[in-house]
Design goal:
single chain, Rossmann fold, Arc Repressor Mutant, subunit A, 2 domains, five-stranded parallel beta sheet
């Protein structure tokens, strides 16, 4: 049985390399979106869900280190594999400190790149059953949510909402997306989601704690640090 294709984001300003690499990855059952500068790459990474990001260091508009730092600041935990011709130890250290998970020096063998991609994705998926957003920790295996050590008391519906919001953090989910995740096509009434979001927010946010569950007017709800 053919495995489900991985989806990676390639942020690379060398158009010839990007095209060749995308074609090769497709043959390896790895689908590839491409951004040709740092600003476009940052925008795509923040608004889509990828298994891994391939990130060049020397990019127009925003360099790779800054892209990585901004993604981590936004709590994007997707693995980042940096691709660069810089081979000094100081450059590697800077990459890891900016949030990279691995570092591959150009020129590289495509076969090695594929091996590293699959290894990073495997490691990420093994760790993906726990998410930390600011001081809120969510363990999906144990269905446990803690904020500053305080356990959240959630109903089954509250837990489903929290899981959907956390797994997609920091993105905003629409009302329709959340209703479908909780009730499918059988939404009880038009106010049901609003009521459960209110109850979830009261559990997540005590008066002295910073807001994490945000309402985005006209769009929906997002779980992220304001």
């Amino acid at each position: 049985m053919k495995q489900t294709a991985l989806l990676v984001l390639l942020v690379e300003d060398d158009m010839d390399l990007a095209a060749t690499l995308s074609d090769y990855l497709t043959l390896e059952n790895i689908e590839c979106d491409h951004a040709f500068n740092g600003r476009a790459g940052l925008d795509q990474a923040l608004n889509n869900q990828y298994d891994l990001i391939l990130l060049d260091l020397t990019l127009p508009q925003i360099d790779g280190l800054s892209v990585s730092e901004q993604l981590r600041a936004q709590h994007i935990q997707c693995p980042i594999l940096m691709l660069t011709a810089r081979d000094a130890i100081s450059d590697r250290v800077a990459g890891f400190e900016a949030g990279a998970d691995d570092y591959l020096i150009k020129p590289f063998a495509f076969e090695e790149l594929v091996v590293r991609i699959r290894a990073l994705v495997r490691r990420s998926k093994a760790q993906s059953n726990q998410v930390k957003i600011a001081d809120l920790t969510i363990d999906f295996d144990q269905q446990l949510a803690l904020r500053n050590g305080r356990r959240l008391k959630l109903s089954p519906t509250g837990w489903t909402l929290l899981e959907q919001l956390a797994r997609n953090s920091p993105k905003t989910l629409s009302r329709e997306q959340l209703e479908r995740a909780v009730w499918g096509d059988q939404v009880p009434n038009s106010n049901s989601l609003k009521v459960h979001i209110y109850k979830l927010r009261r559990q997540i946010q005590r008066p002295h704690e910073s807001p994490l569950l945000n309402t985005v007017a006209g769009s929906g709800y997002g779980l992220r640090q304001s």
